[in-house]
Amino acid sequence: MNDLATFKKSLTFRKRLFKTSVSGLAISIVMAFGGVSVSHADCQNTGSFNNWLSEFKQEAINSGISKNVVASALNNVQFDPSIIRKDRAQGVFAQPFLKFAGRMVSEDRMRQGRKNLNKYSQTLANIGAQYGVPGEVLASFWGLETDFGVNNGKSATIPALATLAYDCRRPALFRPQLLGALKILERGDLSLGEMRGAWAGELGQMQFLPFEYNEFGVDFDGDGRRNLIKSAPDVLASAANLMRSFGWRAGEPWLKEVRVPNSMDWSQARLDNKLSHSQWASMGVSNADGSTLSDSGIPASLILPMGKNGPAFLAYPNFNAYLEWNQSLVYSLTAAYYSTRLAGAPRVSSGNGSVQPLSVEEVKALQKKLADRGFQVGKIDGIIGQKTRSAVRDVQQQLGLPADGYPKPNLINQFQ
After folding, report:
1. Distance (Å, whole) CA 135 – CA 130
2. Which of 202, 222, 245 is the last residue of a domain?
């Protein structure tokens, strides 16, 4: 594949793995890569790992990787059942936005973010001039992914990727990633000993997969290596390069908190509906402080992550780059919100009223009922994603309810 956009389009779904050390708690977000059916989660490995590894070594050599690198990286690699257990046992993270964002955009992470923005101010200014991505945007991912390099992960990358590339569940994804990791070694960006990260093969302070590392890694400190584990300039410039590949537009906003009225056409609040500030203002949408929206000339979508009574945001075209980084709406919205906070925005409002989120099991039950009635909800996983929101909005419209796409607990009993 020629670029990451092509790579991502070949995946039906992609979410990153990331960790946080807040209160000593490590949180994993499900990674469910496309091209593999759900049934493959129950597949069984039958062939010999050693035979598979021998074949892969020859493939790597044929692709241009030196025999020395292949031997040093793979000769002592063993199949690791613990990696498979982690892969099979991944859980779904389905917290509502206010709870998730409140936890992730902590006061400590705000302090560390400001500290690093100050520490690397000149580097970030240079990166901004070259790539057009503001420092606050880069710092938000840096903080959420690894707490600014504190929690990069400790798993040996090559054995993890070899295990996942051999495994029957997602070989089409991980075989190229293992080859990509060998290319990183071949180029000399990292040594084998340095190549440690997340259990699923992500590397460095921004948790790049090897493909991303090779395609978008930048040697910004000029030492001849793209070191995304130890070099902050390389880390930040590489993230900016990746965001630019996602279509980031220099000088434009990405997210803005707004206030919505008690009544409007709630079906307008969806990501694929981009309107001008004046159009939103005509529906009663205002700035968060209640003042009139001034026309920016840039269309925006209205996002109601917890429905009409919860917080509200206008999302601009640059928000799409956040969704390319991570297709989970709650993560992307949290990262974008974190960026605005670092840029000076106040803490988000709780909205216009109380919101009673559904439990994971309640969402699953709703998704199943929707799917049984022909609605496309995607995977029945307990996450209120875009397909589930769209289906809920359709049902709400059929029932004459406010069509904000966010289900109330009694919705499941209101339609047949």
Report:
1. 12
2. 245
Q: Is the pLDDT of residue 7 over 60?
A: no
SS3 of residue 147 by DSSP: coil
Report the alpha-carbon distance of residue 201 to residue 223 in Å, rounded. 25
Q: Is the pLDDT of residue 21 over 50?
A: no
- Write down the pTM of the prediction: 0.88
- The per-residue pLDDT for range 210-232, each reduced to its tens digit, is 999 999 999 999 999 999 999 99
Calculate the alpha carbon distances from 59 to 45, 47, 124, 352 in Å.
Answer: 21, 18, 40, 59
Q: Are strands 286-287 and 274-275 parallel, antiparallel or unpaired?
A: unpaired
- What angle do the packed helices 157-166 and 81-88 form, to 10 degrees? 70
Nearest partner of 65 among 75, 73, 77, 53, judged by Cα: 73
- 312 shares its domain with 369: no
Amino acid found at 10: S
State the angle between helix axes of 360-372 and 386-398 in degrees (0 to 180), rounded to the nearest 10: 70
- Token output for 305: 């992550």
155-156/286-287 β-pairing: unpaired
Q: Compute the distance between CA of residue 15 and CA of residue 328 in angstroms, rounded to an integer.
A: 6
For residues 167 and 203, membership in a common domain is answered with yes
What is the maximal distance between C-alpha atoms in the chain?
68
Give residue 29's Cα distance to chain centre.
9
Q: What are the φ and ψ backbone dihedral angles of 314, each rounded to 5 degrees?
A: -95, 125
| CA 39 – CA 207 distance, rounded (Å) | 28
What domain range includes position 235?
4-91+152-245
364 occurs within a structural domain:
yes
Distance CA 281, CA 294 (A): 9
Assess contact for 405 and 270: CB atoms under 8 A.
yes
Task: Give 224's contacts (C-beta < 8 A, 6+ positions apart).
Answer: 188
